[in-house]
Amino acid sequence: MPIPRDVPAVDRTLLRDDVYRRLRDAIVDCTFAPGEQLKDMELAEWLGVSRTPVREALLRLAGSGLVVAQPGRSTTVSAIDEKALRDARDVVAAMHHLAVFQTAGTLDEAQLDRMREANRRFADAVEAGDVAAALEADERLHSVPVAALGNRAVDTVLDQFGPVVRRAERLRFGHDGRASIELHDRLIALCAAGDKDGAAAVAFDTWHSLPVGHPGA
Question: Which residues neighbour 62 within 8 Å (Cβ) at sequence distance 6 or greater?
Fold first, then answer.
């Protein structure tokens, strides 16, 4: 059969990243629970892709600690390990501290309004008990200074360890996320005022206050 020459090739990078995000989010939202075995053939069928991008995604997830891979044997969703969570939390808190310190006072009104709107959505989600929506709104809010910073090293670190923290954060929002609403308001106000030290301290505390023990600890 003749092969069309004017059709752009499939962007393998986008496919690989999409598969990674789908699997990552399924672990964070507990679609795949801790201890559950992940089979690349079944995952490939679920996502409608070949096994190769699934295997690549599982390797990335193993690098961040979300799965435990035993080559040639099995891959399972990792348990929420206190030390691994503490390590990830400390690193993520440091990255957000850096992003906010560098951008406080430089964010324009459109960026600040995106943060305010995200916190309104966050508050509504917390009130409704919608943990998934709360996590999404929280991600939108904190992504504003990170995106404004434009530091690829920070982006890479957060991409790797952010999901580990998000999985545990889901437990916190499932219990009571109302304290975070006030922290968000303070963060936005300090960023608008150009208080780099104050805003960065709030950003750090917001992430570093995440409990690393059992839910409710």
Answer: 68, 69, 75
